[in-house]
């Protein structure tokens, strides 16, 4: 046997340089080798195949990767923060980085294969955190589990990979049934996203958005009414602010009106059909309505276009403010829009111009018909006729406690003559002074006249007169009183004598009695003579005839 190097073995049979073999051991015989794969190599091969399968499976199961832009990454962590839809994981945050301008945070999210239909253009994303809003407290569960990204599935079929995340959760998600409506008003009031919508004091929806009009004259409010309550929104529905507390003091007493305690804090919107009218045809989705400031304004009949007029007052307007009522015999005809002051160089005096909007349609159907029959200029001509008959404006006190003023329109037949200048824009209506103002002027005039009376001189003259009267009384007591006593005594004697004379047993009384008897007899004789002459007038010529002869 030779070694692999061709050297002979040692004496004891061991190869050169190797260990000596025991002499009693048999000589090893080289086995014939055959090629078979070792089982050890099967383990890494299987592992490699499993790894390749997992990689292929992960590639196959991998969903789309999208990028969401947020203003802040508060609460988000790469590899930990989940993307959830209805509390089901549909993805995870991979990386977070800043935008190039450093104004936004770009969050790269990998969605699952089953969630690939969420990567469409109308899908909405937001970060779910603990929040306190108009609709209540949300996201309390994230205090323990941490923040996550919420999703509202879109309905579009157009794929999209870049999204702008919402700063607040949407008030209405896409799976909620109902209808959206648009309200146009003059002010947002205390409304906010999530503020409730009421129908007969039952919450039926919420505010989902608002924006300022392009011309800056009002606001547009988007509301959502849940199904099946959207059937009560008719084409004739009236909408108004139900925010805060509506406190009224009128001839019926004190009235307090509010939808609920929540509206005092977060505001709200209410709607209802006008009194005496049933719910009209259901309003279509995205229908537009007018948003009134309160319920009474909403339930009032449509006013039509306003007429802008100016009234110049020559008295103080303290207590008058924009929004004050323009009243015509108890009917609210308009409101004050602006109060100013102007100097009149001719009269060298100040006037207080008050601008207001009047709504002629509030004067009734017959008034509207009269204007409609007369053509475009009928309204101006009718107004000019009313001014000629005494239509004037006057400031009056509406509340004695607060001294608030309002503008009253009425017919004053005895008012000075005035005319209406049709060429002036806006129209200038004539005014008359306030009754209280006139009374104050009259009182001031009387006070001036009283002030001119010389009370000092009168008091001095009166004092002298009293002194003279005192002296006179003294003289009467010392000089005239004794003489008056003597005169009274003489008069008493005269009356006594007259009484004695007129007594029945006095001589004078007896003589008068005899004289009256004689006078009575004489009158009887004269009556007999007159009777005889009436029967025998011829006796005046012949004399009285003897008895028995004519």
Work out the helix count.
10
How helical, in percent, are the residues?
Answer: 25-40%
Radius of gyration: 60 Å
How many angstroms separate the termini? Answer: 245 Å
Q: Which class do the helix and strand fractions yield?
A: alpha+beta
Describe what you observe in this structure:
The chain is α+β, with helices and mostly antiparallel strands and 550 residues long. It folds into four domains: 55-164, no CATH class; 178-299, no CATH class; 307-444, no CATH class; 454-492. Helices cover 28% and strands 29% of the residues. The chain has ten helices and 26 strands. It has helices at 42-61, 142-145, 261-266, 295-299, 365-374, 378-388, 435-451, 455-501, 507-535, 539-542; strands spanning 62-70, 82-85, 88-98, 105-112, 124-128, 131-133, 136-138, 148-152, 162-164, 178-185, 196-199, 202-212, 219-226, 238-241, 246-250, 253-257, 269-272, 287-292, 307-313, 325-328, 331-339, 342-344, 349-358, 391-399, 404-411, 427-429. Strands 19, 20, 21, 22, 23, 24, 25 and 26 form an eight-stranded mixed β-sheet that branches. Strands 5-8-2-3-4-1-9 form a seven-stranded mixed β-sheet. A seven-stranded mixed β-barrel has the order 10-13-12-11-17-14-18. β11 (196-199) and β12 (202-212) form a beta hairpin. The model is unreliable at 1-7 (pLDDT under 50).
